[in-house]
């Protein structure tokens, strides 16, 4: 019985000793880890955490609009409206009306971006096309004034609000500027050539994005500051009559178009004959000369016919 008690006591002592060693080992391990962390921080190895923080900051900079909490202070938040219109004009006084339109463009502070003209004054079928840029503040006044030139046959206006796009470009530019400043700081702290080259590559990429968004912002500014107006002036003998779109009017228009087409065909046919006449006359003269020469030499078809007829008559007489 005593032996069993002694054995149980020894087992209990052994178990308690093992648990005590384990706790001591855990304490030593945690203590060494704490010491290692403290040493790393003191030696400056915590720069890795700083670099990770910098990368996180740069990622947040790349998508500022997604956070929904972007500071809009310093942004241009005014309404950005782009006006685009297209106008068709018929004119009986082509030269005068073209000059009037040019004068209206100039007097309203605009300019002609492009222009083209087709047709001939001789036939009265000239067309002139302008693409004009008009200051937004003068757009309404210009549209009212140009409506009195000639006879306006068509008018189309498009109004586009690009305020959100404009603010987005500003936000991206601001974020990219912040990112550029951060990269410049990292560039100054770079210790190896490899780090420097990597940072310079990222700087070049950010610079490209800044230039791209800056160019886009200039385009938006130009579209907002100057409205685009396309104007077509067509020379006509009579103005097109505006009528109701009824079945009878369509029938009358079809009959008129048919008669007009037939008359145009006859005119073109006569004109073609006039063009062909000199060449046809030359061909007739050449044929006449050839026939005259062949007849004189006895080779003409009429001479051969008469000769053959005489031979037949002579043969009949002999019989």
From TrEMBL:
<feature type="domain" description="DUF4349">
    <location>
        <begin position="79"/>
        <end position="289"/>
    </location>
</feature>
<dbReference type="Pfam" id="PF14257">
    <property type="entry name" value="DUF4349"/>
</dbReference>
<keyword id="KW-1133">Transmembrane helix</keyword>
<feature type="transmembrane region" description="Helical">
    <location>
        <begin position="269"/>
        <end position="293"/>
    </location>
</feature>
<keyword id="KW-0472">Membrane</keyword>
<feature type="signal peptide">
    <location>
        <begin position="1"/>
        <end position="24"/>
    </location>
</feature>
<keyword id="KW-0812">Transmembrane</keyword>
<protein>
    <recommendedName>
        <fullName>DUF4349 domain-containing protein</fullName>
    </recommendedName>
</protein>
<keyword id="KW-0175">Coiled coil</keyword>
<feature type="coiled-coil region">
    <location>
        <begin position="166"/>
        <end position="216"/>
    </location>
</feature>
<keyword id="KW-0732">Signal</keyword>
<dbReference type="InterPro" id="IPR025645">
    <property type="entry name" value="DUF4349"/>
</dbReference>
